[in-house]
Amino acid sequence: MSLIPWLRWSDTPPRLSPRSPAEMVLETLMMELAGQIREVERQQRERRSAVRKICTGVDYSWLASTPRPTYDISPGERLQLEDVCAKIHPSYCGPAILRFRQLLAEREPEVQEVARLFHSVLQEALEKMKQEEEAHRLTRQWSLRPRGSLSSFKTRARIAPFASDIRTISEDVERDAPPPPRTWSMPEFRAPQSD
Question: In this predicted model, what pLDDT tens digit does every residue of 3-32 receive, in sequence order?
Answer without folding.
Answer: 555 555 555 555 556 778 889 999 999 999
